[in-house]
Design a protein that fits this description.
Length: 153
């Protein structure tokens, strides 16, 4: 166990953690996909564009909307520590956990994201702490652990 001076300081509340790599990837790949598709569409001559019927055009738009929705779900992952509770947002699901429900947080080496241990014996993912974010994710887990360990929630 580290000495008290070596333990990370608990952040002031409310505090929100978000994954950086996933958000950059979603935005970067989304913009690149949009540019490539737009360049291809406008690169076609009028005759080729006219060959696309309405169903094919709607299919392309639906696929683009599907990619956007998936990117939005991945990009909205976050964990917010409030005075009374911990709010975990993963994709389309939001869970509000009282501090007494949260026993610990773990981000093992090689894990894609952190895991919260709950008092009922279950676990939930905390996708705000992505293993691919490296030190930032590990620091965030340490900060959250300091809040969990704190006696005066």
């Amino acid at each position: 166990m580290p000495a008290a001076s070596e333990r990370p300081a608990a952040p002031t509340l409310p505090h929100t953690w978000r994954p950086m790599g996933v958000r950059f990837a979603v935005i970067g790949l989304g913009v690149m996909l949009l540019v490539v598709c737009a360049a291809a569409w406008f690169g076609f001559d009028d005759e080729t564009r006219a060959k696309f019927n309405i169903l094919q055009r709607l299919t392309l738009l639906a696929m683009g909307a599907g990619f956007a929705v998936i990117g939005w779900a991945l990009g909205r992952a976050r964990v917010t520590a409030e005075q009374a509770a911990l709010v975990v947002v993963n994709g389309f699901r939001t869970r509000r956990l009282e501090w007494e429900q949260v026993l610990g947080v773990h981000l093992p080496a090689g894990a894609p994201w952190a895991t919260l241990d709950l008092a009922d014996g279950t676990t939930i993912s905390a996708m705000a702490f992505q293993g691919s974010d490296g030190k930032a994710a590990r620091d965030g887990v340490r900060q959250l652990r300091a809040l969990i360990d704190r006696a005066d929630h």
